[in-house]
Amino acid sequence: MISYQTAAPGAPLVEVESATPVPQGAEVLIKTLACGVCHSDIHMHDGMFELGDGKQLEVGREGMVLGHEIFGEVIAKGPEAEGVSIGDRRVVFPWIGCGECSFCKRGEEHICTPGRALGIMSAGGFSDHVLVPHSRYLFDKGDASESLAATYACSGLTAYGALKKVGDLQEGEELVIIGAGGVGMMAIQIAHALGVDPIVVDIDDAKLAAAEELGVTRTFNSSDAQTAKAIRKSTGGVYAALDFVGAEASVNYGLSCLRKGGMLIIIGLYGGALSMPIPFIPMNARIIQGSYVGSLQDMSDLMAMVRDGKIAPIEITERPLAEANEALIDLKAGKVKGRQVLVNG
Predict the structure, then answer these.
(1) Which of 33, 59, 29, 26 is nearest to 45 (CA)?
(2) Which part of the chain is the Enoyl reductase (ER) domain (predicted)?
(3) Whole-prediction pTM value?
């Protein structure tokens, strides 16, 4: 099989030919048909996350096969694999845990550490084949296109998992989405499916225009910090802000939008550090919470919505799997609207 693997941090991916794995036990072998390109792939490719104050968290290693938004066709299965047939085309849940720790036993294997996540700890979809440990990680896409279906494994799941943490909004409560990139756009569509009309902010007017094309009625350019005051004035302060960027500026912007008792949910991993007076947290009764992708149950609930046609599509740009390296470069340079998806044959 052919895969595109990491070399030195930030260096071009290397095309590697190796033996195609043979599934054992309950394993399932998938031929990759589509694989989305995520900002997390950039961090793993660069080999680090920025922690602020000149500090970095090293995460990459040589020989990684990135790509965790995977859609493919079942071409082989181990003798113990059940509930799946050769020829099935499925979305792959990539956030796979060890199966033995307390997180996994609680149904939260997506936060198992280090876990066995595809494209992070195990070989992912920047390859023409992927080995999946069990058929329970495979989901029917319904009538969604193959490339769009791939993005639900991270972009869709991450957005859904964050929105789920907000809970049901009461009358008059407002939600702000910070960042109208691939995940933010997915959050807009899922929010609409849940009956929520979000306020959307971004530093890029073109992305705000794209959000308006999806039916968003209230957008603000967050490069002007005064727009946070405008949001507070018009809403009395929002109940929840979902930060799909995760930079110092976006986190502080989100905090500036909140009402007393509001919640900031940080999803993006851009990097930096947060500094704020501790007494303000209890005095304002605010919640600052992280959200990391979503659980296997979240994926099941999300894909049920997808199959029922409740979630409108986002913009998808397809390019060949062999252009994995160029896709990372374009995403890092901010040249991508919606989601890039690598397609294989």
Answers:
(1) 59
(2) 10-342
(3) 0.95
